[in-house]
User: Which sequence fits this backbone?
């Protein structure tokens, strides 16, 4: 169940599903949620292997898309222009979804979870240091650690016990 509350006055605005939606049993284990920038929609990644877009004004599910499992840790992020959602799931699927329509653009199995999008929207990185091009999901290279794309340039940073910088081919830069 998902509950929307006003944190200022601690009022519960609604919960979903509820008695007005008896046809649904819920979402499975909800692990990641993101509001749209305009706060009109809530994107819900859940344990029933779907990503949902829920309109907040009336709790209507606008679409649901199969993403293979729940988004893991940092496993659901928007592209910089907010047109796409990238999900990295516990089942090791990495997906690109159209935020407006729910269309699954591509889905790959990189054997790593998380989905961190570069600031320029050209790259998506996984927890294990794999780097993919966002247009087609093409594999570009890897580091060894949890990866963050630096400034949308040609380098990633791996964070483990140390901080390491890699080029897109996996070569360590100091």
Assistant:
């Amino acid at each position: 169940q998902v509950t929307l509350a006003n944190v200022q006055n601690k009022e519960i605005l609604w919960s979903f599903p509820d008695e007005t939606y008896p046809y649904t049993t819920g979402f499975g284990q909800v692990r990641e949620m993101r509001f749209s920038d305009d706060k009109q929609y809530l994107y819900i990644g859940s344990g029933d292997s779907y990503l949902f877009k829920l309109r907040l004004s009336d709790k209507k599910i606008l679409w649901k898309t199969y993403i293979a499992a729940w988004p893991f840790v940092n496993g659901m992020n928007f592209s910089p222009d907010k047109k796409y959602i990238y999900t990295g799931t516990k089942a090791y699927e990495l997906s690109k979804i159209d935020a407006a329509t729910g269309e699954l653009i591509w889905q790959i199995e990189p054997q790593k979870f998380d989905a961190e999008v570069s600031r320029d929207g050209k790259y998506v990185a996984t927890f294990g240091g794999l780097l993919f091009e966002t247009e087609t999901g093409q594999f570009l290279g890897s580091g060894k650690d949890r990866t963050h794309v630096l400034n949308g340039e040609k380098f990633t940073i791996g964070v483990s016990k140390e901080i390491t910088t890699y080029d897109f081919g996996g070569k360590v830069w100091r």
Q: What stands out?
A: The mean pLDDT is 76.
